[in-house]
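BUG-344 | component: ligand-complex export | severity: low

The export step for N-acetyl-L-glutamyl 5-phosphate jobs runs without errors, but we want the raw record kept on the ticket for reference. Input record follows.
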Amino acid sequence: MIKVGIIGATGYAGAELVRLITTHPQAEIVAISSVSFEGQKISDVYRSYVNINDMICENADDVVEKAEVIFAALPHGLSQELAKKCYDNDKVFIDLGADFRLKSEEEYKEWYKGEYVHKELHDMAVYGLPEFYRDKIKGAKIIANPGCYTTCSPLALVPALNAGVIDTKGIICDCKSGVTGAGRSLSQGNHYPELNEGFHPYKVACHRHTPEIEQTLTSFADEKVTITFVPHLLPVNRGILATCYAPLKKDITMEELRKIYQDFYKGEYFIRLLDDGQVADIHNVKYSNFCDISLHLDKRANLLVAVAAIDNMVKGAAGQAIQNMNIIFGLDEKTGLEIVPPAF
Ligand SMILES: NC(=O)C1=CN([C@@H]2O[C@H](COP(=O)(O)OP(=O)(O)OC[C@H]3O[C@@H](n4cnc5c(N)ncnc54)[C@H](OP(=O)(O)O)[C@@H]3O)[C@@H](O)[C@H]2O)C=CC1
Ligand SMILES: CC(=O)N[C@@H](CCC(=O)OP(=O)(O)O)C(=O)O
C-alpha cells in the first residue's frame, strides 16, 4: 500500500482527497494535518466521514515524516518550503496549489506577487495534466497539480490547437465554476443570499489562471497562445463548464474535427467525447474524474466552439492529483477513480 499524507485535509480539496483515498485499494492515508483542527478528528469536521475515516489531524511535520507521498492542499504561497522538505527526505510531493505551476518566474511574480525560493525545485516540477504530460509525470518527485479552470479549458482546446486548425490568437475561454471552487473560507461573495439566484463574471480578463492556461496551450502550438479568460461564479456546489471559442484557420467538417479529437484522446479513459448533437453538462461528471467534451462548429462566424465539463473537486483537484500518484507509482491510472457519476 502507498503511504499517503494530506496537508490541509480540512479544506475542500483536502477533504476530497480524504474521501477518495479512503477507498483507494492500493493507498492508505497514514497522516493528515490541519492548523485550526489539530488534535481533532476529520469526522468531527466533516460528519459524512464518521466511522469511515476518523483520523486525527496532526501537524504538517508528522505528515511528511510518516508518508511516502504528500499531497498539499493549501492556499497559494505555502508549498515551496514544504516541497523542499519532502524532496530532501526523498518523498513525492503533489501540490494542489499554484506554487509550482508557472514555469516563468516573471509570470509568477506578476500574477502571484511571490518569489521562487528554491529555483531548482521549480525546474524539476512537472505539470500534472496526465492526458498531456504523462511521460514526464512518471518519474516526477514534485507535481504541480493543475486547478479546475486550467484543466478544463486546455482539455477542450488542445487537440484542435495541436492539429493546427485554430488560431493562436483570439481564443476565448468562457468558464463557469461552482462555489466549492472558492474553498471553505467564508466571504461575502459566497454568502447564500448574495449568490443564490444570481450569476456573474469575476476577474474579467485579469484572472491569475490566464497565464497558466496559455502556458499549456502554447506547449502545443508553434507560437505563444494568448487567450481571453472570463470566469463566472455559478450558484451550484460543484462543477466547471468551459465554453471555449476559437477562430478556425481553415475550413473543416465536423467529421474531420471529431477525428482529430478521437485520435488525440484515443485510450483516455477519463475523456468522454460526446456524440454530435450532445452538449457537455456539469451534471454528468459530478463526483467523478471524467471530463466530458462536446464539439460544435459555427460555420457563419468561422469558429470552433469546444465545451468541456469537469467536477472542480475531482478532475479539477483531488481526482487528478490521485491520477498523478497512480502514474508515479506505476498503478493503473484509474485505480480508486472508477466512479460512476450519479444519474440525478
Ligand atoms: N476548491 C477547488 O475547487 C480547488 C482548489 N485548488 C487549490 O487547492 C488549494 C486548497 O484549496 P481549497 O481546499 O479550496 O481551500 P480551503 O480554503 O477550503 O482549504 C485550505 C486549507 O489550508 C489550510 N490553511 C489555511 N491557511 C493555512 C496556513 N497559513 N498554514 C497552513 N494551513 C493553512 C486550511 O485549514 P486549517 O486551518 O484547518 O489548516 C485548509 O485545510 C488551493 O491552493 C486551491 O487553489 C485547486 C483546484 C480546485
Ligand atoms: C470559484 C473560485 O473562486 N475559483 C477559484 C479557483 C479555484 C482553483 O482552481 O484553484 P487554483 O487556483 O488552485 O487553480 C478562483 O477563481 O480563484
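Assignee comment: Attached the raw record above. The domain at 149-311 is CATH 3.30.360.10 (Dihydrodipicolinate Reductase; domain 2).
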